[in-house]
Write a structure and sequence with these properties.
Blueprint: H1 2-17, H2 19-23, E1 49-52, E2 61-65, H3 67-79, E3 84-89, E4 93-96, E5 99-102, E6 108-115, E7 118-121, E8 134-137, E9 140-145, E10 149-151, E11 179-182, E12 185-190, E13 193-195, E14 202-205, E15 208-213, E16 216-218, E17 229-232, E18 235-240, E19 243-245, E20 251-253, E21 258-263, E22 266-267, E23 273-278, E24 287-298, E25 304-308, E26 315-330, E27 334-337, E28 353-367, E29 371-376, E30 383-384, E31 387-394, E32 401-405, E33 410-416
Parallel strand pairs: 1-3, 2-4, 3-6, 4-7, 5-8, 6-9, 7-10, 8-11, 9-12, 10-13, 11-14, 12-15, 13-16, 14-17, 15-18, 16-19, 17-20, 18-21, 19-22, 20-23, 21-24, 22-24, 23-25, 24-26, 25-27, 26-28, 27-29, 28-30, 28-31, 29-32, 31-33
């Protein structure tokens, strides 16, 4: 009996020790609810109820606090309806504080939120104890459409913004994102605008099968840490025909991101398209399967960038391609930086992040940097399987150059700047 009890105790101890690892299993995209469907077309489903926030006391005057009216209307749509239903935010200016749009819904999915009006965030940061402004979680089938606008009214909060990206210890607190999606699948966000967020415009984490289409995300070039679309721990994210002009990365992707397709992005001003920083935290999930094509970048402070910390934690990024990219007056057009926040004269131990199978093809336009292709990889691993093909980046009449450190890319086709010296 004592032996049996000991065996049970050992088993329970092992399960407890592995509980955290079980929770950290990477997300895998399941069935795609919107596959082969015309998501651009909005059609009322048979019997679909339209439930307006106005029916629950909202006032579109831009002054009245409509938070409770929005929350009550959402409860009706999501949790008190069995058939198809949509939440309508009609024309008007609606002031709301932080709130959850939580699922799963009892109504037939996908649930639609139709935003025709102008939704404004309250400005008092003490109201954002939830961490973000509008929080969408635990959904399987959600559409946010309608051509309306989400205004984060972030100007007052920008002076309190901390640069969490460059914080080495990860202790800083970021400003609230405007639209935050977590633990959800089969989500379409289409045809809406976000302006002046306190933090990120859109934050996606722990999600699968996400589509972001025809969005317009706008903030001043000087607004700090206002990434357009920030993605982590997610599988199968499709972004198409979006326009982003903001104060930080147009699109940023960090650990645990897989199978991302970005097409026809217009980016700028901003900090370009960024993968990383990687290797910042213990037990990071890999980044894999990123395809970026047919995009334009104008006046950005970086172009196409991968970045990883030296002297920190392991990680990996692989199977990444950038193709058919047009640049206009872009600084640092192509950069792999495994000395993040340490360059120049970095004396730290090399990065533990493995980078492999990264491809740059048909990147052309103008740059403000004499060093147009800058590849600085880990001395420990180098960068494996890099290709640089058909690059044409001009700096007026001045020559542009390439640099390769701990990497031997395969160069091919038309090349300006010339290949790195071997």
């Amino acid at each position: 009996m004592a032996i049996a009890k000991s065996a049970v105790l050992i088993l329970l101890f092992a399960l407890a020790c592995n509980a955290d690892n079980a929770l950290k299993l990477p997300r895998i995209a399941g069935p795609d609810m919107f596959k082969n469907k015309n998501v651009a077309k909005d059609v009322l489903l048979p019997g679909e109820q339209i439930i307006s926030v106005m029916d629950f006391g909202a006032k579109g005057d831009g002054k009245f606090d409509c938070t409770q009216a929005f929350m009550t209307a959402w409860q009706k749509v999501c949790h008190q309806t069995s058939g198809p239903a949509r939440l309508l935010i009609p024309q008007g200016r609606f002031l709301v504080s932080s709130m959850y749009f939580s699922g799963p819904c009892t109504s037939q999915t996908p649930v639609t939120i139709q935003v025709q009006g102008y939704v404004m965030a309250t400005t008092d940061l003490s109201e954002y104890e939830n961490g973000d402004w509008l929080i969408f979680q635990k959904h399987d089938g959600l559409k946010i459409i309608g051509g309306g606008t989400f205004d984060g009214q972030g100007k007052q909060s920008w002076s309190y913004s901390e640069n969490c990206e460059s914080s080495a210890d990860g202790s800083c607190a970021r400003n609230p994102s405007s639209l935050f999606f977590s633990d959800s699948s089969n989500v379409v966000v289409q045809g809406i605008r976000t302006v002046n967020p306190k933090g990120f415009h859109i934050f996606i984490t722990k999600c699968t099968n996400i589509r972001l289409r025809k969005l317009k995300l706008v903030a001043p070039e000087t607004s700090p840490n206002t990434d357009g679309i920030h993605v982590s721990h997610s599988d199968t994210v499709i972004m198409s025909r979006n326009t982003i002009a903001t104060g930080d990365d147009c699109i940023s992707m960090i650990q645990g991101v897989k199978n991302v397709f970005i097409n026809r992005l217009k980016c700028g001003p901003g900090h370009g398209i960024s993968i990383g920083s990687l290797g910042k935290y213990p037990n990071e999930e890999e980044v894999r399967g990123i395809r970026i094509q047919n995009c334009s970048l104008t006046g950005t402070t970086n172009g196409l960038r991968l970045k990883a910390w030296p002297d920190k934690y392991p990680g990996s990024a692989s199977d990444i391609s950038f193709s058919n990219i047009i640049m206009q007056n872009v600084k640092n057009p192509i950069i792999i930086d495994q000395e993040y926040e340490c360059y120049p004269n970095c004396k730290k131990k090399p990065s533990l992040v493995k980078i492999q199978n990264v491809h740059f093809q048909n990147v052309r336009g103008t740059t403000t940097s004499p060093l147009a292709v800058d590849i600085r990889c880990s001395k420990l691993f180098g960068c494996q399987g890099l290709t640089v093909r058909d690059i044409d980046l001009k700096l007026g009449d001045a020559p542009t150059t390439s640099r390769c450190v701990n990497a031997q890319p395969i160069f091919a086709g038309l090349l300006m700047p010339p290949p790195c010296a071997s």
